[in-house]
Amino acid sequence: MDKAKKVFVVPHSHWDREWYFTIEDSNVLLCENLEYLINVLEKNEDFKSYVFDGQISIIEEFLNIYPEKVEKITNLIKNKRLLVGPWYTQTDTLLVNKESIIRNLLYGTKIGQEMGYYMKIGYLPDVFGQNSYLPSIFEGFGIEYAVVQRGIYEDQLKGDLNFIWQSPDGKRIKTNNIYLGYGPGKFLSSESDYVNTELLPILEKLSKLNKNSNNILLPAGGDQVLVNKNLPKVIKEINSINSNYYLMLSDYEEFMKETWKDSNFSNVIEGELIACQNSRIHNTIRSQRYDIKSLNNIIENKILYILEPLCVIGKSLGIKYPSKLIDNIWKKMFDVHAHDSICGCNSDETNTNILIRLNKVNNTIDCIINILKKQLTYAISKGCEKEEIFVVFNTMPHSRNINIKTILYTKNKDFGLFDLNKNPINFDVIEQNYVSGGKKIVVTAEGEKEIEIEGYYRNVLNVEINDIPSMGYATFIIEDNIKLKNCRTMVTNRKLSNKISNELYEIKCESGELSLLYKVTNKKLKNFIIFEEQADDGDSYDFSPLEGDKPLYIKNARVMEVYKGDLVQIMKVSHTINLPLDIEKRKNKDFSHVFSIETTFELRKGENFIRVKHEIDNNIMDHRVRVIFNTDIKNIKYSYVDQGFSVIKHNIENPYFKDWASKEFVEAPVSIYPLENFAAITDEKSNFAVITKGIKEYEAFKDGRLALTLFRSVGVLGKDNIAWRPGRASGINNKVVYTPKAQLLKRMEFEYAVFFEDSSFEPGKIFKVSYDFIEHFAVYQKQSLNIFHERLEKFQIPLPIEKLPSVYSLFSIDNDRVFISCCKLAHEKDGIIVRVFNPSEIKQDFNIKYSKNPQITFVNLFEDEIKTEEGKIKVNPKSYVTLKIKSIEGEK
């Protein structure tokens, strides 16, 4: 090897869309900086290229404001002088759905391709940890290299910053760790003092960490930085005074290609990267601003499991697929998924704007679903004898027997439900209210008159429906003014009962203690749910225990209401405790504020999990609230969570924790972890899992306790020297930014399911429970009693002329051990995309039965065709396949 090591200097900007500033602030600055960058690149051919953070959204934003500059921008992109993509935005990879990560890359790469080029690097300079499936996802887009900063322990590197990163499905990607972050060359200068005291020590450090290569990567940029137009000249000057290192302007692609072409890097690092030795991961940021994370999760589930598959069903029946609206929805979601945004470590103004955007997206989704359900149902009704119908849509690829909660409107108190063969449908009336029809104005010859409109009943039901067709629907009839034995109005039974049950579980509240009985083996968990409350002396990035403070445990459950029906039993309980108002009151031992938690347990007939919902009207500041499950599973070493397309395991006790401070870790490696949808513990004889809707942080303990962090309540963006994070404040460290809205003084709901059984641990079984708990269905009633039940119900819309069948299935999959993560229109609109994954340790195969004569093709994540499939489709363990399905006859 040559004596002089090559230093690949990569000029770049890391562009936060929003943070302690708003997206509007960012866009104004973007217009100034990007226009200046364009001029520098056009005027100086020596300035080889510039990386604009690997996200295409900021280029779109700039061109929305300056569309006349599209030719300048695209020329620079085509000539690889302005490097953008492959992301749409720099997404957090541990707080969003796996499919959101894939879509972010799909939009980024497709738009980049249209603009002339996108960077073929899985570039993640600043996200707080790396998802274990990123190597597989990058490989699926034809991306060969990754450059990441955070999440790697030094002993994992084995003396070399270049390594092979491997996903749980065995897919690999060539990776470089930017050990000193993305800014070691930010202030590059040829001044001798800078070269000798700053630059050379940096290069010497990086040299020692590149034992198998003569090449060194030196990122030269920072947050929202303005390009240094003199950089080519500065590099020439440094080279003239230094002989040990040869600096050259470059980019990430060139560095990786040059470094890996003649080298044989053999070190393999597997899975999730969440180490916090040299770069902060902010392990407890996953419970910061729960309101943002919860709403994002609700919307992701609604898009992926209801909206898109429902649109596919509609398209197969001749209804237009709303591609442009869905594109717009996803792009707005990607803005929220940027690492600062979804983490909630922002100013109050920024977080308020994020919630506003999420609510706008949620409203748009509800509108599209409303219109689509109405168009389908009205076309279905053309072939029905009865006018009063409701339709249940199933968006899973298997036929289902389901016990669903829904709302139906009737003219009379008594009514019945029937299938099309006039067989009665079982249901419980949970709640029934008479609603006045109001008044309307009628113009007569004598003038305007007020006329009373007949009232109606709003019924909240649990309905038991069998054999709902896969990826399709079934139709049912409402018979008004009829009494049936199987219609049972549930009675509040507050004093006479302190327990509820179904076939598998019994929950009992006795002497303030909640117990869970698993009926199959008669195993009982005492105090199976309690709450933990503790002071939080941290900031928006990290929880921090208050010195001298100890957790308080809330165990005094009190039954409020019990409802019992044939299909569902519900128990509501409350917990109360006296707490200090804030951290100063806590220091002074002033426990004068009453804090309450209301919990609803719901056991439905036929379900193998327990539905739990907590309602908290938070009136306390500077604290953390967790729910603790006592599982009676002892001496466990690992917990398990879903991540990507399978289950990964976490250490119960992080081996690095015992001496993290003496080894000068930048943050304590606490055993608090992220989850996508569920967390579980097992001793291979018993399993306990919690499946959440928006709760993203958990901790498991050796004694069998499992904790879900419901929320953290803090009022400042950054603090210096907190207990688990020594040194400077994260974010901005020279200004205190107060965030009173981050105290979350408002009413919040927390929803999850509990799964418990005595059997061996099967990841696929918990995935199935997860898919049963997270809604994959929609209901629509053809009615005119309440025209405000859904967002656009009041308005006229174009309705299909043709009648549709009353029962329909677009396609089915014959193996219930595989799952779909998406069902959508292909990006090129030439078929539908179905992504099927196998979370188990065993290879699975399946057939797809399609309603029309199909052509099934394997595609990559970019949706380019790989090969046509005939016969059974195979999915490797912990892996996935992406299929494009085209009807040979052609869709309507």
From TrEMBL:
Family, as annotated: Belongs to the glycosyl hydrolase 38 family.
SUPFAM superfamilies assigned to the protein according to its UniProt record, in alphabetical order: Families 57/38 glycoside transferase middle domain, Galactose mutarotase-like, Glycoside hydrolase/deacetylase
Species per Swiss-Prot/TrEMBL record: Anaerobranca gottschalkii DSM 13577
GO molecular function: alpha-mannosidase activity; carbohydrate binding; metal ion binding
Classification via InterPro entries: Gal_mutarotase_sf_dom, Glyco_hydro/deAcase_b/a-brl, Glyco_hydro_38_C, Glyco_hydro_38_cen, Glyco_hydro_38_cen_sf, Glyco_hydro_38_N, Glyco_hydro_38_N_sf, Glyco_hydro_57/38_cen_sf
Protein known as: Alpha-mannosidase
One GO BP: mannose metabolic process
One Pfam family, short name: Glyco_hydro_38N
Domain Glycoside hydrolase family 38 central: 288-358
